[in-house]
Amino acid sequence: MPNTHIPGSQHSPNALSLAENVIKALSIDNLVFGLDDDDLKILLVKQTDPLHQGKWALPGGWIRYDENLRDAAYRLLEELTGVRDLYLEQLKTFGRVDRFPSERVVTIAYYALVSADKFSLVAGQSAADVSWQSVNKLPELVYDHAEIIEHGLKVLRHQVCHQPIGFNLLPEKFTLLQLQALYEAILNTTLDKPNFRRKIMKMNLLSPCNEKQQGVPHRAASLYRFDAEAYKHLSESGFAFEI
Amino acid sequence: MPNTHIPGSQHSPNALSLAENVIKALSIDNLVFGLDDDDLKILLVKQTDPLHQGKWALPGGWIRYDENLRDAAYRLLEELTGVRDLYLEQLKTFGRVDRFPSERVVTIAYYALVSADKFSLVAGQSAADVSWQSVNKLPELVYDHAEIIEHGLKVLRHQVCHQPIGFNLLPEKFTLLQLQALYEAILNTTLDKPNFRRKIMKMNLLSPCNEKQQGVPHRAASLYRFDAEAYKHLSESGFAFEI
DNA sequence: TTATCTTGTTGTCAGATGGACAATAAGCTA
DNA sequence: TAGCTTATTGTCCATCTGACAACAAGATAA
């Protein structure tokens, strides 16, 4: 099992003074989002120590002294899930004086988006105490992790409307309805199919795969992929993504 | 003179081990924005030590062990400028391994908006080596401060279009043209006066002061103030601010 | 073979919005 | 009182948005 290094879970309260080669008082917590059908989920770790029996936590760990912040978040993700190449962005730094017991620990939260291709890999790869949980039905969480997730959801809901990042949650090739379902799941709303389709297509961000869905019991939809090059060009000439 | 506590400026390279009662390796840097007529400015501190002769830095300092992050940013701002009640938000945490010489220092950047009422107070209150600099003509900066400011500007330009925060840069009572000039200065663009006016007024976020500008050599414009209550109500019912 | 079901895709239309710009109003200065 | 500057209102048209109808394409079942 990879060393998940959750502050306060795998360590006793005075673990800080034992940890070697890390920046003391500074940790990483990762918000890993994935889409399970039409349900937005987040990756959580079950706590095993008696103090937090039954509670869950964000996966995280310590930042090494000679390691960039982003690299640390990335390393911790890979150690936990075995998955690389995720969309990863810094969320916010949380440092309330009493957020962590007995020691002052400031944590830098990152959020990651896992593509549908890798969704089932992520939790399977690692220990049984790591699992996807619906963001609409979160279990009890340790420390300020509920607050961090709440903020993360707020930012995700905003970002997804203003940056083309939602594609990172889909498989490489997807249908327009899958894309629509993604927005409906994240924003917790419903959208008009024809209008959504037009809006997306007008942006010229999708390139057709010239393929159709397979094995569906109805007319198969066309598959598209996100065209990162096109987005780069468009945004350089003042285009603003907007849902 | 207030103790500005710039990491690496007022301290020798091994200052970290001398500093008492702070979280080691963790600092705050503040991006303080203000509007000088139609020019967006940022508050910088001139470096005095021989190593950084002539360079400038963001005002910052150390976080105390028993102090919340936001409180630290606030305290440092007040110590430097004597001004309170600024709009203050966390920007991002910067921690590249080699961003700071000889010691690993991670810094949490905050950005503040200073109202036009207080603009001239801010730099005047403190030492001569603190001054407003146009964001379009920045001097040479120490460490990664140029990168931090660049990111801050990007975030400010985005936020100002999606949240009603621009008002924090104006005096309490302002004209519609002042508001327009603010957006033009920050976004570095020009806007159509009648259309801008309509767009703003339709939002119902401004309440009229029933007063007019004084001492202008032309027809005086009506004064308005931002109605925070109205915004609260509107945003609760799904309203999204958008310029 | 044909009806029927489900989803994909295109069309239509009224109302809202946004950008360009004309027109008028109000106050100061010469 | 004319002329200047800015404030404020009005108009027009292209585009966008949301609601919903209509048609197309497969798959399944009678």
Can you give a write-up of this model?
2 copies of one chain form a homodimer. Chain A contains 7 helices and 9 strands; from the N terminus they run αββββαββαβαααββα. The first copy, chain A, has helices spanning 15-18, 69-81, 119-125, 145-162, 176-187, 193-202, 228-236; strands at residues 22-36, 39-46, 56-57, 60-64, 87-94, 106-114, 130-134, 206-212, 222-226. In chain A, a hairpin with a 2-residue loop joins strand 1 and strand 2. The N and C termini of chain A lie far apart (41 Å). The interface between A and B is medium-sized, with 21 and 21 residues. The first copy, chain A, binds a DNA duplex (30 and 30 nucleotides) through helix 6.
Query: Biggest interface and its residues per chain?
Result: A-B, 21 and 21 residues
- Per DSSP E runs of 2 or more residues, the count of β-strands of chain A stands at 9
- Please state the average pLDDT score of chain A: 90
Helix content of chain A: 25-40%
Oligomer: homodimer
Gap between N and C termini of chain A, in Å? 41 Å
Summarize the helix and strand pattern of chain A as letters. HEEEEHEEHEHHHEEH
Global geometry of chain A: globular
What class would the helix/strand composition of chain A place it in?
alpha+beta
